[in-house]
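Trying the structure run again after the queue cleared.
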Amino acid sequence: MENTQVLEQRDQEVEIKFKWVNERLDELQMKEKQLDLIKKLIQECTLELSLKENQLNLARKEVEDCNGKVSMKKEQLGLVQKELDECNEELSVKKKQLVTVQKSIVELTGELELKEMNLGLVKMKVEVGRSSFKENHLDSIKALIEENTEELEAKEQQYDAINKSINECSAKLTMKEKEMELIEKSIRNLSSKRQSEEKKLDSVEMLIEESLKDLDSKMEHLDSIKVLIEEN
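Done. Tokens:
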């Protein structure tokens, strides 16, 4: 009877221990599953982090490219502005020359008209009473008229040349102004794109920071599970 009780007691103890072992095994298996799950999550976080870092590098490159293009466009703008200033200065000089030539033409035209009037008067006097002096005077006035006519033609040609140069300079000025407007528009577009890329860069940096925090949290959880497994 006593032996039977001892055996039953031992069986109960074995059963309790067996049950405890099974519970520990179940708990261990559960912890190992959690461990595997966290490892998988860490791998996913690491992969996501790697992708975000690639995005960050691309965004930085875009910002650098935009900065380079903006800098280049600003240099182009400076050159065009310099050419524009030179055109304006040249145009101003040409207009002054044109005014001077116009004044000379008016003066020469007045002189020519006066000499033609004198010529008419001398002709009348010659016809009334011919004399060698009057004829010589008539020849002198004719020669002066021819000289003035040649000078007037030269001035008119000079006027036409300056006027043509002004038109060409004005056309060049208009072209440079349009070129400058295009460059300014390009700078505005690039600046807008740079701002967009900088915002994207900030967003990616925030995501990376969050991913790192999440990764740290999972690593801590993983370490705690490892400790529990080792204790079991």
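The helical segments are 2-128, 132-231. Worth checking whether this holds up in the mutant runs.
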